[in-house]
UniProtKB/TrEMBL annotation:
It comes from Leptonychotes weddellii. Residues 1-18 form the signal peptide. This is Ig-like V-type domain-containing protein FAM187A. The keyword Transmembrane helix applies. Its main location: membrane. One of its GO terms (cellular component) is membrane.
Amino acid sequence: MNLAHTTVLLWVWGSLQAFEIVEKENIFQRTPCPAFLMFDNAAYLADMSFELPCHCKPEEVSAVVWYYQKHLGSSHTKVLTDFDGRVLTEESQVHVGSDMLVRFSIRMFSLLVFRAQPEDSGLYFCGTRKGDYFYAYDVDIQSGEGMVATFKDQGQEPFADEHHGSLHIFTTFWEWTPCDRCGVRGEQWRIGLCYLQSPGLSPRYRKTLPEVVSCGSQAVPRKLRAQAREHSPELLVQSCVVPCEKKKVGEGVMAILSYVSKVGSRPWLPQVPIQFHQQRLGHGLIISCPGARPEHAVAWDKDREYFYRTQYLRGVNRSMRVFIDHGNHLHIRFTQLSDRGIYYCWRQGVRVAGLRLGVMSRGRYRASFSDPETRSAVELTLVGYLFITAVFVTIHLCRCCCYLFRCCPNFSP
């Protein structure tokens, strides 16, 4: 009897649990979409990639279509789909400056936009092919051109909040990144985007806090948006030190090293994959860290020299020849012979790649209009010719006017 009672109780408990799970799934499926379309506010920094989930859709809809409008009610609407719900592109295939129609992807009803630009700010709708909308977002992409860097180790403080009557403009910081290096002194930072608080915001836009949205949101009236335009994003940087995690070397590698060390000198083995690149003397170079994004903790070294943002961040010194931009790219302007060496890249506190840079002082170089320096040389030449032509024409026009009105002095004897 005890065994029978136990079996019955277990069966009843399992049935109730299964009924509870099915009931939850049915409740989720029966959740209706809102009758009045609202917009979720979301802000990102330029060159970031973001994902917009379609939280609400009817059960019979098997593939969603995403729409984009610059302003609410705009007659020009972009359709972001291939009408089959397939993956359209990968982030590694996206080039900087590409149109948004080749920088998006749809996966499991969610819209992914790669390397977003300020021009991508606007309204995104999740709906059907017929144009029925289920869910919507108000996306604000803030430019990093005027980003202000604040170094905590130097005693600097972020910008103070601005108050213009009932308008409150402030910076909302993200969480600190991991330390960008391990075993040595590194840096970590947090990105701050512009937000404002005002009682005159549109009620159609859903806010995380009451009357608080990002500065470029469609909920902000034009007058208030113009006042908040001068409040640029901020970057807060501070030093950090973390130990490195020990990695075990494989037995096969250790056997090869021990054999080589017995035969002769131990060879140099790179700890990370290293690429080789030849750069012409005097030309510029931009190096990217593989797999890194603007929100990642990225650091750069040259051999045993560490490039810290307190000295090499873009905007710290206008005359910098080597600097790091806000997208974590390393720039070398006017390459010199002293730039030869191995440049290492750290991502999220782990050294991931290296670039052995060689500088060619001589050799043939094919001029191409895709080269920015070639375009600059052609532009300067054309401007010089136009200036000389303008001076020549001006002198002759003056001589003609003087001859017609007989106001020129006569130097003939």
